[in-house]
Amino acid sequence: MTEISRPNVARPDTVHSPLEGGLARLQTSAGFVSDLDLQRQIRILWARRNTLFLCLVLVMALTWGAMSLVTPLYSAHAAVMIDNRKMRIIDFKDMVAQMQPGLIQVGSEVEVIRSRALAQRVAERLRLYDDPEFNAALRPAPRFSLGTALGPVFRLLGGPSTQPPLTEAERAERQRARVISALLARLEVRPVPQSMVIQISVRSAESRKASAIANAFADGFVMDQIESRFEVTKQVSGWLNSRLEGLRDQVVASERAVESYRSTHGLFENKGLLGAQQQLTELNSQLITAQANRAAVEAKVAHLESLKGAGADEFLDSPLIQRLKEQEEQLSRDIADISTRYGEKHPAMIKALAARQELRDKIRIEVERLSQGERGELTVARTREAALRDQIRRLEETVLTQNQLSIKLHDLEREAQSNRVLYEAFLNRSKETSQEEDIRQADARVISRAEPPERPSSPNRPALMAGAVIAGLMLGAVMVFLREHLDRALRTPEQLEAMTGIPAIGMIQLLKSSRRGKTAGINSYVVDHPHSSFAESFRGLWVSLKHAKRDQPPRLVVVTSSLPGEGKSLTSLSLTRTVAGLGARVALVDCDLRRPTLARMVGVEPARYFDEALSGACPLADVAVRDPLTELDLYASRVLSRPPLELLNSQRMTDLLEELRADYDLVVVDTPPAMAVSDVQIIAQKADAVLFVVRWEKTPKDVVRSVLRTLGDVRVSIAGTLLTQVNLARHARYGYGDSGYYYGKYKSYYTD
Fold first, then answer.
1. Could you tell me the sign of the dihedral formed by the alpha carbons of 137, 143, 147, 151, in that order?
2. Is the dihedral of CA 422, 426, 427, 428 positive or negative?
3. 3-class secondary structure, 531
């Protein structure tokens, strides 16, 4: 057969069978071929806009209903700032940093505001335990609730309780815990980015109550800061005082140990030096002086020894020798004068010489005496130097012993010093902490107090309705595409051809009167409206069938379908009337011997029926009835009382069909649905071409596959498939681009 995709378009000659062509392609087909472009998806949404709008209206209605059931809530906002510029409670070293980590960290303060302890203080301050908004036990019990209805079921599934019954105090405590949980559920605390500010938001059914709770949380947080500072300061002060007592005892004990050790070993200080060491220093100084003195005396004595007998010039510093020398010089001058005046022998001369000799003897005696004194001084100097050396040696031994003892003394002194420094540091901090106990100052302050809001913050009706519109559209789109994906019907020739592998050679529109449930005028529509798109589609169908094989056009065509109601009988009648109107000799044979309808559709009452000619009761020519509207010959049938398969499979059936093929240009055989009975498998083997009718958007794909597989089992050659009862207006919305699209889009070219 010649494969045709649209009317008036021929394809190369090829023979298609469901097993060889279509079923092989079913394995790679997803059910229907869809364009993935945006315009295609929009057309799908528009084609199923009822589903889309229904989901939209449903979601909006549910959202509006839910909002009407929700109690409006007001949101009040307060703000506190963590002021880390103020002095901290305790900031020395690592000790207090470990006791109070991160007091000014915003994240930690946020958790403090969210704590149940602070919420409990707020609830007690504002008497929220007696407020029905937060205490569900004070609200009137609803007439019906899901929890009440399902309570017995939950208790049954949960089994018997093993917990002892609660006391009155435990029930009250649990109720207070529920109030705290309800209050925290209405609280929102968030830090403001890039700042030390924390925003506190509270939702409540009353505007003033919301602002009061928000301010209570802010004030409670500041008070908590003050109290926590006071408690920490108090604890640190007590710890410092107890620690000071121990440090004081340590200082006293260490200083006593130093003094005891020093007194025991004689390690006394004098201007920073120990006594023995100071003495050694002084003795060394004296030894140096003594050595210098001894060296000077030795030099002087040695010089005197070297000048012995030379005179007393070296002793001129002696007053006695100086006077004697002056007297000697005066006598020498007198002797010189006497010698000149009186001569050497003069008594005056002799007396003067004797006096001078006496003076010289005195000088010599005095020099000897002084020389003996220098030697005695040298002996004393040497003796003193030796004594100093001996003392120094003994002191060096003492100092060495003291140096070894002073090592431990230094350790004791360092320990005493460190204890005193630590004690003084703790003492100073204790005084500062004692002063801070009287100054209660928080690290946070309220920078914005909450004001009663004028409008409720939730439910946010515009935002919720906008969200409902978006959700409704999304749900509608999901439902539309889900229905489109799960839809098992066929809508386009391309889908049908892709699924079966058989050429789809036409589309027949659904007539308006048919959509209204009326049948009058439908059967003759192709004759009454020859310029309509309906009539044009049958002319195109005939052209496609006629040119299926250029060398041998089909003369015997079998029309069948999968299920009843797919329009195969109307298709057979309209096709034959169209071809008869073109001047050809056409016969229409009703081979549906179970539910024949063509005689009623044409509006005739035959005298003889086709089954009679099959049984040999009458000639075939006696069965033919002329169509009142065209030159069509109708061979009508009636319902048989016995199964017709034997007659249809007889040689008589073959002979009658050959006779009709010889007498007419076109013979169309209307058969029963192939899914219902097996008559089609017999008749189709005798035809030149088989036209398979599929109802648009109704016939399931699985049914079409099953029928084509059955026909393929008996080697039936199908010329093409045909979509019938196509709603062109709806079909055009999808924008498939086939003939149905143009029939619906450009219907002004036709006269219906």
1. positive
2. positive
3. coil
